Amino acid sequence: MTTATTSDSAAVERHDTDEILRLEGIHKSFGAVRVLQGIDMVLHRGEVLGLVGDNGAGKSTLVKILTGFQRADQGRIFLEGEQVRFSSVDDARAHGIETVYQDLALIPQLSIFHNLFLNRELTVGGRLGLLNNKRMRELARQYLTDMGVDIPTIEAPAQSLSGGQRQAIAVARASRREDTKILLLDEPLAAMGAREAALIIDLIKDLSRNRGVSIIVVDHNYTHLFEFCDRVTVIQQGVMTLDQRTADTSLDELMDYMVSQFRQQVATGRAERGH
Ligand SMILES: Nc1ncnc2c1ncn2[C@@H]1O[C@H](COP(=O)(O)OP(=O)(O)O)[C@@H](O)[C@H]1O
Ligand SMILES: [Mg+2]
């Protein structure tokens, strides 16, 4: 494809090799609530895409559909050009899509190192053998040191960690896999202090630049977005209203856009209420 056309039909036909994920006309309702109303989206290899929008806009729902946690009512998902339908989170994971849920990230009572290897435990003597705790401890220590996560002991239960540390471990776990193609992070920095946030940001940069992992991050902090995203997408009331490369816009421009959208919504609300 050499032309720079952006017409809808051209966009639909264009399945270049750089493209890892494509969504077409994704709809999702919960009862009478129409949460997603036709989302079209493309994600490229090694690209970091920032997803923003008001509370209730449908961002988490979109992430959950991509991770196989929920099913779209309508629309198609293509992974590396092939249409896919994820039957479960495990199914999406088997396709190389990893995620970190804000609440369900770790098992509180389980040790930090066991959490790091959750569902992918190393064993001695095949898959059903005894747990290789020694090796998991070594690797966990090394991995966290490499990442710069400062944790006194990996034997402690995950519940002894701060929210930010827990999130850092969950992201580390999701990114450990060699075959992760896409990593989805729903507000990974929300509970974090500056130091922990910097860790995650470094990890995101490393994964995308050095390992070619494509990443979608939901984040309300626009300054962050301009620090590590290649592209930013705005979802409002289930519709994508802006999709721009961060290099082609600026923090001020995005803020102005969001403020103008907010004003418009307030004005529409007033008109609808008749005052
Ligand atoms: N499982 C569900 N059942 C019913 N309504 C839901 C469910 N999940 C989300 N919603 C509703 O869908 C809308 C979008 O939610 P969500 O995707 O979480 O938005 P965001 O992440 O952008 O804040 C909200 O109005 C929310 O109440
Ligand atoms: Mg959300």
Q: Span from first to last CA?
A: 51 Å
Distinct ligands: adenosine-5'-diphosphate, magnesium ion
Query: What is the average per-residue confidence, as pLDDT, rounded to a whole number?
Result: 85
Radius of gyration, rounded?
20 Å
What does the overall shape look like?
Answer: globular
Domain count: 1
Query: Could you state the order of secondary-structure elements as H and E?
Result: HEEEHEEHEHEEHHEHEHEEH
Could you describe the largest sheet, including whether it forms a barrel?
6 strands, mixed
- CATH-assigned homologous superfamily: P-loop containing nucleotide triphosphate hydrolases
Could you please say which CATH topology applies here? Rossmann fold
Question: In the CATH hierarchy, what is the architecture at level 2?
Answer: 3-Layer(aba) Sandwich
According to DSSP, the number of beta strands is 12
Strand order in the largest sheet: 6-9-10-3-11-12
Name the descriptors.
275 residues; alpha/beta; Rossmann fold; four-stranded antiparallel β-sheet; 25% strand; disordered N terminus; binds adenosine-5'-diphosphate
